[in-house]
Amino acid sequence: MDDSRGSRIDAVRGAPNVGTEMRMGRDEPRLPSHALASAWSSLVPALSLIAPRDASAAYRLFWTGRGENGFRDFALARDAHLIVGRHSACDVVLASDGELSLRHLLIVPARVEGGAGLRLVDLQGSMPMHLDDDSAQRSLLAQGPFAVRLGRYVIGGFPIGPGQPAPPHDLPRSERVDESAEDAPVREAPASASHGHGPYREAAVGRSRTVITALPRPITMVAEIASGSATPDAVGLLGAARDGERARITVGRRALRAGVLVGRADKCDAGLKALLTIRVSRVHAVVIEIDGRVMLYDCASTNGTMLAGRRVRAVELDVDAPVVQLAGSDGVELRWTALRR
């Protein structure tokens, strides 16, 4: 698979006409809804002719906007993830839209009944994603081919690999399922040899249809710098330590599935900030449950995330209780302690 920052789309001459930019409020789309169909029909037929580098299951992701086109193949590996934003360290750099956040979006594979999917998690960015029905989404699961608007860009993708049909030449019809409300029930997908757990809707996804499940966005929680747990649905404690000082927050089940941001920015969890040094990025990492595993994903941080002296991009926190260092081996230590579920 392509591990570079992204490949230019050489098969397409010029940028597609994605429509006139619209200037509205913060949560309003910057592009009209027909920009999705225009980008899809202009780029996907050419992209579908490019052979994958290997036979691994993957998504072919593409982005277009402000005269810029790009794509990359994203392997659906166990610990794979991408960070999208304006920062030069991001895996997908969208530098032409100054309204996007430096680290705006997390993309991770999700195993679901009926086929592979992708979780797109807004890192409390400056603006939401928008679907073809103009609904604003901060976190979603895409099953099958998909396209969303993010600021002045269109981002989309389609499955590639063994047994995958060619993507449709026209934008696939989407079905939206809303599970983003705080009191929405979280449904578990059945476990099997080939599918993991996940709070996702079961769906059979075809080549001309996709299912978009709206999920809760990452949240900012009030700190609980104390022993024990005061959260009724608590599933774990996220603790930080530096120079003999300690702090920890209690994380509930829904918060863990939505994602907890760690960093110096105001949008990150306040309970750990007192211990974070200037070397920790403003949005350094996110702790989130994916397919039943508690994962820490580095968000293209400047000074990195370390495990046993080695820089890593992702760590499974609920196996062997690893101690993770933020911003270097002598930085802030982070540890996850699971509570009885």
Number of helices: 2
The helical percent reads: under 10%
- Give the biggest sheet: 7 strands, mixed
List the secondary-structure elements in sequence, H or E: HEEEEEEEEEEEEEEEHEEEEEEEE
CATH topology of the largest domain: Tumour Suppressor Smad4
What is the end-to-end distance?
37 Å
Q: How are the strands of the largest sheet arranged?
A: 4-3-5-6-9-13-12
Instruction: Write down the CATH class of the largest domain.
Output: Mainly Beta
Could you give a short description of this structure?
InterPro entries: FHA_dom (IPR000253), SMAD_FHA_dom_sf (IPR008984). This protein has 341 residues and is mostly beta strands.
Write a structural description.
By secondary structure, the chain is mainly beta. It has two domains: 33-179 and 209-214, Tumour Suppressor Smad4 (Sandwich); 234-338, Sandwich (Tumour Suppressor Smad4), CATH 2.60.200. Helix content is 6%, strand content 36%. It is built from two helices and 23 strands. The chain has helices at residues 34-47, 253-258; strands at residues 58-65, 68-75, 82-85, 92-93, 105-112, 115-122, 129-130, 136-137, 139-143, 146-150, 153-160, 173-178, 209-214, 234-242, 245-252, 260-262, 285-290, 293-298, 305-307, 310-312, 314-316, 323-326, 332-338. Strands 4-3-5-6-9-13-12 form a seven-stranded mixed sheet, with no helix packed on it. The model is unreliable at 1-6, 8-14, 185-207 and 222-229 (pLDDT under 50). Residues 82-107, 260-312 form the FHA domain. Residues 1-11, 170-179 have a biased composition (Basic and acidic residues). Residues 1-27, 161-200 are annotated as: Disordered. InterPro entries: FHA_dom, SMAD_FHA_dom_sf.
